[in-house]
Amino acid sequence: MAQYAPIRTILFVPGNRPERVDKAVTAGSDAVVIDLEDAVPLASKEETRPLVREKLLQYAEEHIMVRVNAVDSGFLQGDLDAVVTGALRCIIVPKVEGPAHIRDIHRLLGEAEAAKGIGPGRISIIPLIESARAVQNIHAIVSQKIEPERLHTVALGAADYTLDMGIEMTRGGDELFYPRSRIAVACRAAGIEPPLDTPFLIDVRDVEGLTADALRAKTLGFQGKLCIHPSQVAPCNEIFSPSPGEIAYARQVIEAFDEAEARGLAAIQLKGKMIDYPVVERSKRILRLAERMGVN
Predict the structure, then answer these.
(1) Cβ atoms within 10 A of the Cβ of 58, count?
(2) In angstroms, rounded to a whole number, what is the distance separating the alpha carbons of residues 236 and 253?
(3) Could you tell me the pTM of the whole model?
C-alpha cells in the first residue's frame, strides 16, 4: 500500500457510470474508487462488474480501488471473481463489524489471487466502519493479525452509522465526535495508517461546510477524506496537506532546537511557544509528510 500513502482524498464514482471514471482520474484525488455497492442498483450489479473490470485494466497505472459489496451481501464472491486482476491493488469493504469479517475477506481474497495467478497479499483492504457494533469493535478490527498483512487503514461511513444509531447527520458533526475519536485512537494504537473520514454528504455545494468538516477530522487524527464529487477534492487535498506556514515553522523549530540541544538545553521558547522533544518530533513528522506528498 506504499503507493497509496498518504491518502488525502479518495473520489467515489458509480460502477455503472464508466464514463465518470474517465473524468475522475483527472480530478486530482490521490485515489479513485469505482463503486459496486450502494451506487449500483441490486438488479444491475452483475452487468456492472465487467464494466468495472474494463476500467481497472484501462487505468492499470492509476490509483484505482473498488468498493465491493459486503461480506454477508451475497454479492462479494462475484465481485471478486470479476475485479481481482493484476491491475487491482486495494478494495474497500463496506459494513465490516468485527475481526471475523477481516479473516473472511482475507480468505476470499487469497483464493481469488491464487485462482488468477496473483501473488498472495498483493491486494490490500480498507474496511468501512459503518455501525455501532463496528465502532465498538474497532480496536479488534484493526488489530486482527493476518498473513500476509492486508489492512492499510479504515474509513468511517457516517450515512450508515447514523442510520444504525437512529440519529441525524448534521452540518456541525457533533454526532460523529465519538466514532471519529475512537477510530483514530484505535488506528494509532494498532500501528496502522491514520483513518479516512466519511464523505461530507450534507450538500456537495457547501464548500464552507466541507472545509469545517474536514478540519474536524484532521484535528482528531484522520489522514484524509472520502469524496463524492470532484469539487470536494481540491479543498480536502489542501486541508490534509501541510501548509507552507506549517512547513516553514517546523523547519524553524528543528533548527532552533538543534542549536539549543548543542548547548545542553532540552526546552526553549520560539516565538512565545515552548519547544521540547514532543514538539520537535511533531515538526519532524510534518516535514516527513510534506516530503511524501511532494509539498515544500
Answers:
(1) 15
(2) 26
(3) 0.88
pLDDT tens over the chain, length 296 residues:
445 668 999 999 999 999 999 999 999 999 999 999 999 999 999 999 999 999 999 999 999 999 999 999 999 999 999 999 999 999 999 999 999 999 999 999 999 999 999 989 999 999 999 999 999 999 999 999 999 999 999 999 999 999 999 999 999 999 999 999 999 999 999 999 999 999 999 999 999 999 999 999 999 999 999 999 999 999 999 999 887 878 888 888 888 878 878 888 778 888 888 888 888 788 888 888 777 777 77
CA distances, 232 to each of 19, 39, 73, 156, 205 (Å): 19, 18, 30, 17, 9
- Domains, the chain: 2-239 (3.20.20.60), 244-293 (no CATH)
C-alpha dihedral over 127, 131, 134, 136, to 10 degrees? Answer: 150
Of 152, 172, 131, whose CA–CA distance to 10 is shortest? 152
